[in-house]
Amino acid sequence: MNHSQKIRCEKIAEHYGRKTQERQTVSELSELMYVLTRRPDQRQPDWTNELLDEIADVSIMMQQMMHLYDISSDELNERINYKLKRQLGRMEG
User: Fold this and answer.
1) Radius of gyration of the chain from its Cα atoms, rounded to whole angstroms
2) Are 12 and 57 contacting, i.e. CB atoms less than 8 angstroms apart?
3) Predicted pLDDT at 39
4) Do 81 and 58 form a contact (C-beta atoms < 8 A)?
5) CA distances (Å), origin 67, targets 7, 14, 32, 74, 79
6) pTM of the model
7) Using one digit for the tens of pLDDT, what is the confidence trace for 64-92?
8) Contact 24/61 with Cβ under 8 angstroms?
């Protein structure tokens, strides 16, 4: 996410606040789950556009949660690296 997008996410998060945006985050996650769990025969031919839209919505909400809970990109990247290393270790072992 670029700087301009982050600023816009922060503005939206500040406007609506934690409680509302937490509920919205759950809603967006649910929509992504729905798209991913649909049987292949239930998917539209261009379902990847729908998937992309839902991933974008979730990404926007994740950025807002990071802002509302004062989580830095560095903190997130550190945790991501930890979890990736742990999973790769499990796969090797």
Assistant:
1) 16
2) no
3) 79
4) no
5) 10, 9, 21, 13, 16
6) 0.90
7) 999 999 999 999 999 999 999 999 999 99
8) yes
Kindly report, residue by residue over 4-53, the tens digit of the pLDDT: 999 999 999 999 999 999 999 999 999 999 999 987 777 777 788 999 99
User: In Å, what is the CA distance from 73 to each residue of 2, 67, 87?
Assistant: 12, 10, 21
Q: Residue 33 has which token pair?
A: 């789950």
The answer to whether 24 and 65 have CB atoms below 8 angstroms apart is no
Rounded CA-CA distance 61/54 in Å is 11
Q: Token pair 């025969």 is at which residue? A: 41
CA distance 20 to 25: 9
